Amino acid sequence: MSRVVLGIETSCDETSVAVLKDDKILSNIVSSQVEIHARFGGIVPEIASRNHLKNLPIVYRKALETAEVDPHDLDAVAVTQGPGLVGALLVGLSFAKGLSLSLDIPMVPVNHLQGHIYAAYLSHRDLTPPFIALIVSGGHTEIVLVRDGFKVLGKTLDDAAGEAFDKVARVLGLGYPGGPAIEKAALEGSDSKYDFPRALLSDENFNFSFSGLKTSVMYFIKKNPSCSISDVAASFQKAVVDVLVEKTLLAAEKYGIDRVVIAGGVAANTCLRRKMNDRAISKGLKLYVPPKNLCTDNAAMIARVGLEKLSEGNTASLEINAEPGLQF
Ligand code: KG4
Ligand code: ZN
User: Fold this and answer.
1) How far, in Å, are 9, 34, 115, 302, 304 from residue 118 at the CA level?
2) Using CB atoms within 10 A of its CB, is residue 150 exposed (0-12), middle (13-18) or buried (19+)?
3) Of ligand 1's atoms, which has the minimum distance to the CA of residue 14?
């Protein structure tokens, strides 16, 4: 039996609605608030909530129109419950509750991090557990073993990888969001020009730390104001990528897993995609990388988790609340 699921994502600064028919994406509309937050150099939570409130009904209508689906043909509404900004999450959750009630369809709450991993199921139909997933976003950096459920093997002890990109970009005067800006600047630079620290790289665990790297870049710029921004960007990017790749491969080796997924906004980084691919090949591992538009925040990945939970009968009552600190 075919099922049509609407997904809603409002955990951070993207307002997104998608329609999935089974695991086929009929629409995946993303309205970014990046330009609004860029002038503040980062996301302002209150402004994010207000813009979700304004944009969500428009994005919802566009998603249905593009999918050519009538709201009464929806079988369920899946919505990000957490982790994320509480006000932003509440906008999406309230909208989903309204749809659930008015259309008399079940509501499926979704963990945003699980959504990032499930983006890989949308792009790779042949993917099945067990696999190791590296989730790298603005708020999270985690290595997860996906086998019977989700086992977090390690995570960042301080800043997330995306956060480090955003903060370093700010110091370099490259603007927000930092990831794409650093990637672009790095194209003109040499990644071996400066040797920035690679924290915890040789430790036999799967935790990360990026705040020392960020501080090191900040001091370096202060001491060398006339240095090449491109060389710093390229060397910083290489330091982050080296740690992400080696720790992920170490996890695959230690747990005897031959499949690796990378997910989350930082997985849109070409340098990370390339290095992970080269190193995975050299180790005989199969790498699954979603296209860039499914790596950054989007509602199709949320609907994909919703589809699975719906088939398990895992729906929720309208009493549930947003969970800004939701974990696996
Ligand atoms: O997954 P995401 O869209 O939102 C969160 O759940 O956080 O990730 C956003 C993060 C930001 O920190 C952004 O700078 C980073 O992903 N990012 C990148 C790239 N594109 C987005 N980082 C490095 N290279 C990129 N191309
Ligand atoms: Zn995300």
Assistant:
1) 14, 24, 5, 8, 7
2) middle
3) 3
Tokens of 272: 């990370």
Q: Compute CA 286 distance to the chain's CA centroid, rounded to the nearest angstrom.
A: 21
What is the Cα–Cα distance from 117 to 97, expressed in whole angstroms?
25
Residue listed under structure tokens 């009493």:
319
Ligand index nearest the alpha carbon of residue 302: 2
Q: Is the CB of residue 139 below 6 angstroms from any atom belonging to ligand 1?
A: yes
Ligand 2 centre to CA of 227 (Å) is 33
| Positive/negative CA dihedral, 166, 171, 172, 176 | positive
Beta partners for 280?
none
Ligand with the closest atom to the CA of 272: 1
SS3 label, residue 222: helix
pLDDT, one tens digit per residue, over 269-286 is 999 999 999 999 999 999
219: left (phi over 0), alpha (psi -120 to 50) or beta: alpha
Report pLDDT digits (tens) over 23-52.
Answer: 999 999 999 988 898 888 888 999 999 999
Q: What is the DSSP track for 55-79?
A: HHHHHHHHHHHHHT--GGG--EEEE
**Residue 84 Cβ contacting ligand 1 at under 6 Å:** no
List Cβ neighbours of 55 (8 Å cut-off, separation of 6 or more).
15, 31, 33
Please tell me the predicted confidence (pLDDT) of residue 230.
97
Which phi-psi region, left, alpha or beta, contains residue 289 (left: φ > 0; alpha: ψ -120 to 50)?
Answer: beta
Please name each of the domains of the chain with its CATH number.
Answer: 4-116+295-311 (3.30.420.40), 129-289 (3.30.420.40)
Query: 18, 28 in Cβ contact below 8 A?
Result: yes
Say how many Å lie between the CA of residue 228 and the centre of ligand 2: 31
In the reported structure, the alpha carbon of residue 222 is separated from the centroid of ligand 1 by a whole-number distance in angstroms of 26
Q: Does residue 136 contact residue 260 with C-beta atoms inside 8 Å?
A: no
Question: What spacing in Å lies between the alpha carbon of 139 and ligand 2's midpoint?
Answer: 7
10 lines ligand 1 (CB under 6 A): no
